[in-house]
Amino acid sequence: MYDSGKIITGLVIFVALFASPFILNVGGGAPAVPQPSLDTPAIKSMGNPVCVRENMQSNHMQVLDLWRDSVVRDSNHTAPGIDGQLYEMSLSNTCMECHSNKAEFCDRCHTYAAVDPFCWDCHIEPPKEG
Amino acid sequence: MKSDRRHFLKAAGVATIGVAAGATAAEANLLDSAKELLLGPKGAAPYPEAKKNARWAMVVDTRKLTAESMEKMIHACNHAHNIPLHPLRKKGDKYNKDEIKWIWEEEFENAFPGQMNEHLPPKVTQNEVLVLCNQCENPACVRVCPTKATFQRDDGIVIMDFHRCIGCRFCMAACPYGSRSFNFKDPRIASLEINPEFPTRMKGVVEKCNFCAEQLDKGLQPHCVEACENGELVFGDMNDPESEIRKVLRNNYTIRRKPEVGTQPQVYYIV
Ligand code: SF4
Ligand code: SF4
Ligand code: SF4
After folding, report:
1. How is residue A123 annotated by DSSP?
2. What confidence tens digit (pLDDT) does each residue in B32-50 have?
3. Which residue of A60, A94, A121 is the best one to mutate when testing the B interface, meaning the one whose CB has the most B CBs within 10 A?
4. Model pLDDT for residues A15-54, shown as the tens digit of each residue
5. Distance from the alpha carbon of residue B139 to the mean position of ligand 2, in angstroms
6. Model confidence, pTM
7. Is the ipTM of this complex over 0.90?
8. Packing angle between helix A56-74 and helix B2-39, nearest 10 degrees?
9. Mutation site for B-interface testing, chosen from A77, A85, A102, A119 by largest number of B Cβ within 10 Å
């Protein structure tokens, strides 16, 4: 092979550069993953939480999307909660009734992940607490 | 060497397809089970009070309309649906170019341009009538909408999925009744006190009367009908021969707006 020395040196430099963000991060440079707060009067007053049988933290986008189509396109408005009762599939009127702390619940992660969903351009935010 | 590379590429290709196919099948399964989990075993359930297999329609009794009663019905709709009341753009403007209209008062000759016989009774021609989306059986707006944001439900209601509207306004050009409005401005800057139960819209989205689908799905009457005090509006199920609306239509002569354009309006007028 010709120039194998140069190629290998180049490769080593490339790999080092490519991996540098990961390597540098090992020390824990990134801010801690935020936890959405479940501390609202509605949730506290509930004995057992009555939410959805799903990992909402990682799947709420799919769940909300499914609900949105179900309500708007198929006129189906209710879905079972963990307790088996039917609840209205409504972001502003059901989800936010418990999660009335939008800033500590929704925004905390959305800000961390730099996603800016436009739900609130139309759906009404719960009034600020306090 | 050459042959090795070819083999490798082939194997890689097959593997990619396999992974892709596997993923979609798995995803589909996941989606199905997630759907069942999230919407209940038979798909989502509507409210139990909702009437099934209906074809909704409305009768407007223009003999009973008064300025005050119309005002009340319009206000009920505006409030329930967070319809913005934009101020006139500049002093001296006669028409509001930003206006959003779901239900409004219209002069008889504008509402029924084909009906203007000479020497009609003044009580017919001089009074304003209440107009709204006709919830056409054969809606032109649905046919032209490229995104299916405007669609017709099984119960005949022509409704908008505001999430999908791209604001192309084909539907506004197609509707023969001017029943649709475009949000040139952010509706929230001019909203009444906001009703949290119903979303507002965004700038760039079209909107119109939805026959209060949100009420019907709960077994309730539309807001404008609830606001009537003297039976100015009759709302009901055309598929049910015993319904109030069918009785009213049997016993009164009614006209519809621009029947000649073939959209089959489902709002009937007693004059
Ligand atoms: S403006 Fe919206 S509803 Fe109208 S045709 Fe375009 S996408 Fe459809
Ligand atoms: S009145 Fe216009 S907007 Fe309403 S359904 Fe008919 S064509 Fe569509
Ligand atoms: S039926 Fe509902 S949406 Fe339509 S005009 Fe009446 S109140 Fe408004």
Report:
1. S
2. 666 666 776 555 556 777 8
3. A121
4. 878 887 777 666 666 668 888 898 899 998 888 878 888 8
5. 5
6. 0.82
7. no
8. 70
9. A77
